[in-house]
Prior knowledge:
The complex is a heterodimer of chains A (412) and B (119). Helices cover 21% and strands 34% of the residues of chain A. Chain A is built from eight helices and 27 strands. In chain A, a hairpin with a 2-residue loop joins strand 24 and strand 25 (373-383). The radius of gyration of chain A is 22 Å and the shape is globular. In chain B, 18% of the residues lie in helices and 39% in strands. Chain B contains two helices and ten strands, in the order βββαββββαβββ. The longest helix of chain B has 12 residues, at 34-45. Chain B is elongated. The A-B interface holds A 36-38, 42, 45-48, 51, 57, 59, 61-62, 64-65, 68-69, 72, 144-148, 170, 173-174, 191-193, 195-197, 200-201, 299-300 and B 5-11, 13, 15, 49-54, 56, 60, 62, 64, 66, 73, 76-77, 80, 94, 110-112, 117-119.
Amino acid sequence: MTDLVIIGGGPAGMSAALAAYDRGVRDILILERDDSLGGILKQCIHNGFGLHTFHEELTGPEYAWKYEKQIHEKQIAYKLNTMVLDITPDKVITATNETEGIFTIQAKAIILAMGCRERPRGALHIPGTRPSGIYSAGTAQRFVNLEGYMPGKDVVILGSGDIGLIMARRMTLEGAKVHAVCELMPYSGGLARNIEQCLNDFDIPLKLSHTVVEIHGKKRLEGVTIAEVDPKGEPIETTKEYIPCDTLLLSVGLIPENELTKQAGIQIDPVTGGARVNQDRQTSVPGIFACGNVLHVHDLVDFVSKEAEIAGIAAAAYLNGVPETKTEISIKTDGKIRYTVPEVITEKKDITVYFRVSGVYRNATVCVTSGKNVLLTKKKQKVSPGEMESVIIKKEMLEQIDELMFQLEVQS
Amino acid sequence: MKRELTCIVCPVGCSLIADLENGKVVSVSGNSCQRGRDYAQTECVAPMRSVTTTMRCCGGEILPVKTDRPIPKNQVMDCMKIINQRVAHLPIAVGDVIIENVFGANIVATKNMGGLGNE
Lengths: 412, 119
Ligand SMILES: Cc1cc2nc3c(=O)[nH]c(=O)nc-3n(C[C@H](O)[C@H](O)[C@H](O)COP(=O)(O)OP(=O)(O)OC[C@H]3O[C@@H](n4cnc5c(N)ncnc54)[C@H](O)[C@@H]3O)c2cc1C
C-alpha cells in the first residue's frame, strides 16, 4: 500500500509531489516511463519558462531542474523507465519496467500527470503520398534538441502553434531554410512574441488562412502544395502554390493523454479531452486527482506547476481524511467560452476558474451568471483561443446557487 | 517617425508604438511595464537577442546551452557558428560557463550532464 502515487514525472507530477510533501505526506511514489524526470521540458531548450513563478526567464531544462533538485533533497521516491499500464477505480495501479516486470501497487490516492501528446498527421486528412520527412513539431524538437540530428534542410511548417514557431527558429539557427508557416485559421494560435522572435526575426513568412493541400514525393518528401482557404475552410483553387521541401512539420495541436483515466472509469469532459474535475482537481473518482496537460492543454508551464500544487494539496487533505462537502455547483459555458477548469464546484470558497474561448474576440465581456443574477463581469480588450483566461469566483457568490453560467458578450 | 513593435520580453506580447526622432526613441506607448519601454528603446536602436541552442560534448552527448545575456541580433548566426565548432567536456552542471565572451555574453549550460542530477 502506498499513500500517494503520481503518474508522470513532468513539471505537473514533480510540483504535485512537492506540494503533497509540504503538507506532510511522506509515502509518495512517482512513476515515470522516460529515463529521467522533467517531462516535455527536457526538449524545450528555449527560454521563456518560469517568468511568473521565479521572475526570471529560464529554459525548459533549467525550470525542470528547479523542481527535480527539490525532489532529490526531500528524497521523494520515483521509478524511471516505468510505464503505467492500467489503473482501476479502486486505485490498483499496474505498471511495468525491466527490473520488476509487471507489478501492481495499491494506492490510497493517485495524481494523474501524464501530460499530452501531439495530434498526428492521420488526424489531418492531407491527401497525397506517404513519404518520409513528415514529423510532428514535437518529434522534430526531440530529434534536434535531445538526439542532435536535423530532420531536413528545406522545411514547411503546418500550424502556427508555439511549438511550430519555436521549431521554425530552431531549424533556421541550425542552418535549415524554413520556407513558410501555414495556418488554417485567420489568426495564429501562438504567442505574439513567438511570431516576432521566431518568424519575423528570420523573415519566415506566416501564411494565415493557408493549408497544405497535397504532399509530393515517393520515398522522401519532395514538396507540398499549399493554398489559401475561404472562410469555410475550403482551399481556393487559383491560389495553389508548390513549395519544394524535404521536411514538413505539423504543429496542429495537442491532445491530453487519457487512456489510463478512461480505464479508471473517470468521467471525461468531451471539450478538454481531460477528466472532469472540481476546484481541487479531484476527478469523478474520489481520491484520484489530475493536473497539468493531462487535464487540459496549458501553454505556460507556470500554470501547470500552479495547478499541480492545488492537486498535491488536495491529495494531502484527502489522505488526512478532511470531510467531503456536499455542495455541487456545475459550471456551464456558452460555446464562445469553450470550457472551464474546474467544471464543477463542491466547496464554497474563493476559487480561480480558468477558461478558454473559441475564437478571437475584441471588446468582449466575460459574464458569470446564475439564473437571472449577474454575479461577475470582466471586460477584455481582446481574447483569443491561444490564451488561457481566468476569473476569481468569491465564496459569497456561491451561496444558494446550484449552477454557474460562463458567457462571453461581444459587441457587434 | 512611428514604429510598431511586438514586445518579446514576456508572454503577454504587448503591441508597442515607439516615436522616433533623429534615430532616437522619444516616447513609447502600448507597454504595460518598464521592461516593455526598455525593450522598445533598444529594439529601435540596437536590437539584442538571447540565443538558446545545443552543443556537442566529447562523448557525443547533446548539451543544451544559452547566452547568459542578450547579444546583438545581427550576431546571432555567428554565435551559432562558434558554438557549433566547439565541444564541451563533461561533467557539467547547470550554469557552468562553457565558452567565455561570445559577443559580450558567456555560453552557459542549462542542464547537468555526466555527473549527478538530471541526465
Ligand atoms: C512538444 C511540446 C513542446 C512544448 N513547448 C512548450 C514551450 O515551449 N513552452 C511552454 O511553456 N510549454 C510548452 N509545452 C507545454 C508543456 O507541455 C507544458 O508547459 C508542461 O510541460 C506540461 O507538463 P506536464 O507535467 O503536464 O506534462 P509533460 O511534461 O508532458 O509530462 C508528462 C510526463 O508523464 C509521463 N507519462 C505519460 N504517460 C505515462 C505512463 N503511462 N506511465 C508513466 N509515465 C507516463 C511522460 O513520460 C512525461 O514525462 C510544450 C508541450 C509539448 C507537447
